[in-house]
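Work Package 3 (structural annotation) set out to generate three-dimensional models for the target panel prioritized at the project kickoff. During this period the team completed the workflow that converts sequence records into discrete structure tokens, so that structures can be stored uniformly alongside our sequence database. As a representative example, we reproduce one entry of 250 residues exactly as it appears in the project archive.
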Amino acid sequence: MSEFILETEDLTKEFAGFVAVNGVNLRVERGTIHALIGPNGAGKTTCFNLLSKFLQPTRGRISYKGKDITAMAAADVANLGMVRSFQISAVFPHLTVLENVRIALQRKRGGSFDFWRSRSVLDTFNDRAKALIADVGLTEFTDVLAVELPYGRKRALEIATTLALDPEMMLLDEPTAGMGHEDISRIAALIKSVAANRTVLMVEHNLSVVENLCQRITVLTRGRVLAEGDYETVSKNPEVREAYMGTGDA
């Protein structure tokens, strides 16, 4: 078994002549938290969309657990164990926390979400749903509608629904975006906890979060890999400091 759970080779995406992702070679080691960072317009989200199969590459290859997934559909990749969260909230706003997590658990039953089945059948998912809700610190919000959750708690709910799919690898798209300090600390601790037995690849702008969580960092700029390594290595790279962090102290 390869030490790398996810690999890309010459991953490229063009839009009407504009090259958004340009020859990216990425290797994510199993059991690590790996960050994809860079300035606005660097190609991070496009790269994420390619990896999670919401976009097809212009050229290049994507391998997950040794399997070529380049031409696979997003749902099929999720079934292999690579699941993605989104920068914009992707929960059902007018369902409760419990109902949101339960729907994600129902996904394991196949193509059906069991909407026509009796409530007693759906209640069989409650114990597992409540355990996941507890894992992300939302027990007191179990019966609260998602739309009524504070922003940071809503992001925790999204992580719970992602965990409900029992992923081996999680792709997190800016999990702390728009949060205050307290919520950032809570979500960072949550990510560290859920990564204990799985691999995480995350796009993240908050460099403090990246420094404290990530074993490896890939820096993108203008669609290309500019640098890669641990935080100390990339933060001292003059090109990275100029492109992403500025020329002052990191």
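The longest strand covers residues 4-15.
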